[in-house]
Amino acid sequence: MIDYNLCYTIPMIIKHTRDTLSETYLDAVAIRNTVFVKVQGVPRSVDIDANEAYCIHFVLYDDKGQATATVRLLPNIDLTQVTLQRMAVLDNYQGQGLGSILLKEAEDFAQEQGFKSISLHAQLRALKFYLNNGYQEVGQIFEEAGIQHITVEKSLISKKA
């Protein structure tokens, strides 16, 4: 759990869990339900999948304890790469830099766990966000859950002089 009060004007906290019975996980699912199922029309059966228990779920809370954003990490079988999935920021919190803060927390966590790279299927409307956060496009555009995506990836290996 990281307290970002020192680096951001709005006090916030980020929690992560693997426990699919925890309050943090339920908050993540509630955000995903709002953003993906209700707004984007993604079937709930696609959003909630067989990988839930294998993922690390992150939730960013504001100063009032309101869950505002979520993302999950799915470690790949060889444990060298992690897949970032289900990145979502509630509509009234978008444009405040919360997505970048949550993304950085997930990347830092993955790096601390020894993962060498991170990849994801970025919705085309969010591609610029990921490119601005150091990701590179890989491959061609494809459709997933009725939405156009492209794979992006980023190295987590520190480049020290």
Automatic annotation (TrEMBL):
Keyword Nucleotide-binding: no
Ranges for domain N-acetyltransferase: 15-157
Source domain of life: Bacteria
Signal peptide feature range: none
Swiss-Prot/TrEMBL keywords: Transferase
Pfam families: Acetyltransf_10
One function term, GO molecular function aspect: N-acetyltransferase activity
UniProt KW Transmembrane keyword: no
UniProt name for this protein: Acetyltransferase
